[in-house]
Amino acid sequence: MDIIRTIPELKRIIGPVRTSGRTIGFVPTMGYLHQGHLSLVKAARSECDFVVVSIFVNPIQFGVGEDFEQYPRDLASDARMCQEEGVNLIFSPSEREMYPRGFDTRVQVEELTRGLCGRGRPGHFRGVTTVVTKLFNLVEPDIAYFGQKDAQQALVLKKMAADLNMNVTLKIMPTVRETDGLAMSSRNAYLSPDERKAALVLYKSLKQAEELIKDGSRNASKIIDTMKEIITGEPLAQLEYIEIVDTTNLEHIDYMEAEVLIALAVKMGQTRLIDNIIVEVQ
Ligand code: AMP
């Protein structure tokens, strides 16, 4: 497995892979890998000839006062995990390599980034779509893998790839959870033991919503109220949003008739956690 830091080196390796006709599977990450990331890597390994993982904590997707500096990093451990999964190449560029002095271009999806996490994190998705465009241009993947854990990000990136006629298929893989239900996230490393316990309210509220819908409840605001009670009942939790939206365009739903996305963001101490589920409505 190669660990590559620069764009010229990356191109030197990717060029021959492409011309030999091998398929390239790509998993973009910010590192500090866990089983959620590795589920994407495993999918890429099983479906593609050559697997690339990028590890880059992308400064332009973090807002002022967010956790860019503190974001956990451990390239040695990430590399071990990737090696065990049969990854062919890790691309881990410096900030300067990705954003040389004078870098002045942004890629932006408009409507889909207005709500949910876009409201509380202005500029975040623009940073994501910009870096992923660059990475797609560099790695030239046939298939790129993303997690349902970041549901809005997955939809935004699919829209970007479709609107800009990008030559890549995006695959969205299910959320991987700890045994108690907490969605795996590199940011879980920030949680104190008490916050870690309290963080279970996210999944608990989502499961409760699912139960209510299964029992026939169709009124979104009633379901949101029940979820809010669960979250606000946890003193360490500060709710940012709970929304029930259409799974394709993220528009608000009042009366549920078809599949819905239930998504929430909660601050647990200083740590911002997100989670979501998709629920079929019969
Ligand atoms: P990140 O390193 O947080 O930017 O995540 C890189 C990729 O891994 C994104 O496509 C995420 O959606 C995905 N991912 C992160 N956590 C999980 C998880 N618990 N289950 C599935 N995919 C995940």
Given helix and strand content, the structural type is alpha/beta
Q: Order of strands across the biggest sheet?
A: 1-4-3-2-5-6
Number of strands: 9
Percentage of residues in strands:
15-25%
Q: What's the overall geometry?
A: globular
Top-tier CATH class of the largest domain: Alpha Beta
Bound molecules: adenosine monophosphate
- Parts with pLDDT < 50 across at least 5 consecutive residues: none
Termini gap: 47 Å
Specify the helix fraction band: 25-40%
Tally of helical runs: 10
Overall residue-averaged pLDDT value: 98
Count of discrete structural domains:
2
The largest sheet, given as strand count, sense and whether it forms a barrel, is: 6 strands, parallel
Order of helices and strands: EHEHEHEHHHEHEHHHEEE
Radius of gyration: 19 Å
CATH architecture of the largest domain: 3-Layer(aba) Sandwich
CATH topology of the largest domain: Rossmann fold
Q: What is the CATH superfamily of the largest domain?
A: HUPs
Short description:
This protein is of the alpha/beta class and 282 residues long.
Describe the structure.
By secondary structure, this protein is of the alpha/beta class. The chain has two domains: 2-173, HUPs (Rossmann fold, 3-Layer(aba) Sandwich), CATH 3.40.50.620; 186-279, Pantoate--beta-alanine Ligase, Chain: A,domain 2. The chain is 38% helix and 20% strand. It is built from ten helices and nine strands. A six-stranded parallel beta sheet has the order 1-4-3-2-5-6, with helices on both faces. The protein has a three-stranded antiparallel beta sheet with strand order 7-8-9. α6 (124-139) crosses α7 (151-163) and α9 (200-214) packs antiparallel against α10. Bound molecules: adenosine monophosphate. The site of adenosine monophosphate (AMP) has 17 residues, from α2 and β5.
